[in-house]
Amino acid sequence: MAIQLDHFIVPTRDQVAAAQLLAELLDVPWSKTALGPFSPVFINDGLTLDFQTTDEAFPVHHYCFRVGEDEFDAILARLKAHGIPFRGSVRGPNDGRINTEYGGRMVYWNEPDGHQWELLTVSYARQA
What we know:
alpha/beta, globular, 27% strand, 3-stranded mixed sheet
């Protein structure tokens, strides 16, 4: 069997709110509770993001989702509908731009706890 990433714990101040928002934006299933102290977001058949509330300090994480063109348009529309600012660069101002420098489209946004989400249509990390 090939190695696959199964789940990742996402530290947060409010696991239910954070999980629900990401699930709504990505249009994927989620649950308020699961095995253990988590609110899981089921990204696909093999990957779960387990949101966990903590009062401890935690680093800001960066998560990138590769999607098809239609999914990109739908998620971008949901970002706009939620009034979530986004940008075309990993750092910098929320300029509402879409980056097209690497042969596809990508945007970045931060969730309330500071974690950074990236959405792209073509992987720049894995060139053909």
